[in-house]
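Service request form, structural biology core

Requester: graduate student, group of Dr. S.
Request type: structure prediction, single chain
Budget code: on file
Notes: please return the result as structure tokens.

Sequence provided:
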Amino acid sequence: MKNLNFSDSDLKKIGAAVKEAEGETSGEIKVALIRESYDYAKFELFFALIAGFLSLGVLMLFPEKIDFFVQNMFWEYSPVYTAIFFGIFPFLVITIFYLLANLSFVDRLIVPKLVMKKKVNERAVRYFMESGIFNTRDRTGILIFLSFLERRVELIADKGISSKIPKERWEGIVSHITGGIRSGKTIENLVDSVRECGTILSESDKFPIKPDDENELEDSVSVLES
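Core staff response, request fulfilled:
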């Protein structure tokens, strides 16, 4: 996946921002990136099938013209050729539209927004558990999860943080990152947002660094395949 077209320098900037943000707090910040949180294949197939059936319906409205068109394609004509055309054409349409449906902007048009929201949340929660973010000593892990096809961001704070800082404090950060994805300023907005997370944690005075504090989560960005 080649790091979602981010350069090593870009990823290092984010990692450096994470390290800086954690410098004055016991909070642990993890950034994860993924191209898409779900394959949406059934929606793409349904879209293609609808297109195929519609194309067949259009053909049925003009049988004589279709028959004339097919006749002009061959030196020697048989009515079987027209029947074959009616059978093959919808499958060609289905194939073409299924391929088109795999384009990101088409997915964003055909997949319901609520479905995308749910799938991104599910994938973020799964990574939150799989990566051990939930298992820091004081339950002070934060996951910033970016899913690019859906253009959605999930920020999950473990209970050590969510019990002391209301969810509303993070909404502006999520909006800032999402805006960066849409405007082509992903790295800049993400770096700013990571630093803002550190500011929120350090200013609250509820998550001081302890004498035996350890960096429990790697500062580097995780780029997920699926």
